[in-house]
Amino acid sequence: VQGVGYRAFVVKEARRLGVTGYARNLPDRRMVEVVAEGARIDLELLIAALHKGPWIAKVERVTTLWLTSTGQFADFDIRT
């Protein structure tokens, strides 16, 4: 995923939708983890965007796990 702007794309989409949380590369650098909180409709729109990704990225798979919201995020950012 490195070098295609995927995390920056996720941040832009999440902020546009008013979703909070973070995106980060996983240790193998081939996958990005996205943790997001917000209204279900906004999360569903974010998930749809994750499937598409930025024009240069090739998204092979998006796995979704729904959990109870904790309210711990104030914004959406990139973590390292």
**What is the ordering of alpha helices and beta strands?**
HEEHE
Shape: globular
Can you give the mean pLDDT? 94
Radius of gyration: 12 Å
Q: Major sheet, described briefly? A: 3 strands, mixed
What does this structure look like?
- The protein has 80 residues and is an alpha+beta fold.
- It is built from 2 helices and 3 strands; from the N terminus they run H-E-E-H-E.
- Strands 2-1-3 form a 3-stranded mixed β-sheet, covered by helices on one side.
- Strand 1 and strand 2 (32-37) form a beta hairpin.
- Helix 1 packs antiparallel against helix 2 (40-52).
- The longest helix is centred in the middle third of the chain and has 13 residues, at 40-52.
Give a brief description.
The chain has about 80 residues and is α+β, with helices and mostly antiparallel strands.
Topology:
Layout: H1 6-17, E1 20-25, E2 32-37, H2 40-52, E3 76-79
Parallel strand pairs: 1-3
Antiparallel strand pairs: 1-2
List keywords for this structure.
80 residues; alpha+beta; Alpha-Beta Plaits; 3-stranded mixed sheet; 3 strands; 31% helix
